[in-house]
Write a structure and sequence with these properties.
This protein has helices at 19-39, 53-59, 84-97, 114-126, 140-143; strands at 65-69, 75-77, 80-82, 104-108, 132-134. It has 148 residues and is an alpha/beta fold. A five-stranded mixed β-sheet has the order 3-2-1-4-5, covered by helices on one side. A hairpin with a 5-residue loop joins strand 1 and strand 2. Helix 3 crosses helix 4 (114-126). The model is unreliable at 41-49 (pLDDT under 50). It is a single-pass membrane protein; Single-pass type II membrane protein. It is found in: Cell membrane.
Length: 148
């Protein structure tokens, strides 16, 4: 009996087939592209759409405590100009006289310096206020229903 020799080494194909790898990588790329924008919002918050009519009525009452910041940085308590240092004690004094809700409302000009607005919020918070309502105006788009 003789030795049978196989020549399988000549038939071996050593080329890598990259088509399945590319298919898998493209599917993974698409999956990550779809999922990534959803990962940015870590905390889901329901934001208010507009100021309710009741809040506006409460803010327009005579005994309501309203703080306003103008675009030139002046701070008003009611109709009187106050400094940021005096804002906390004056708000606290107004709230002592007030019976019922101890809520303070704030209005700020669109072009007001953000730092001045935050300083006014800090002044109101230093008076011990736990409820601060930020007032806005409805835009024309919000006031009128959308036409289809």
């Amino acid at each position: 009996m003789g030795i049978v020799k196989r020549d399988e080494g000549k038939k071996v194909n050593s080329n890598i087939n990259v088509t399945p790898m590319v298919d898998v990588m493209l599917v993974l790329l698409i999956i990550f592209m779809v999922i990534t924008p959803m990962l940015n919002n870590k905390v889901n918050v329901d934001l208010p759409k507009a100021v309710s009519a009741k809040v506006m009525e409460d803010a327009n009452k005579e005994d309501a405590v309203v703080v306003a910041v103008t675009r030139d940085g002046r701070t008003y308590l009611g109709g009187d100009v106050v400094s940021l240092d005096d804002l906390g004690p004056k708000v606290a004094a107004k709230l002592e006289k007030k019976v019922g809700s101890k809520q303070v409302y704030m209005r700020a000009d669109v072009r007001a310096n953000y730092g001045k607005v935050m300083d006014a919020v800090d002044g109101v918070r230093s008076a011990g206020v736990s409820e601060l309502g930020l007032l806005t105006e409805k835009t024309d788009e919000e006031a009128a229903p959308a036409k289809k």
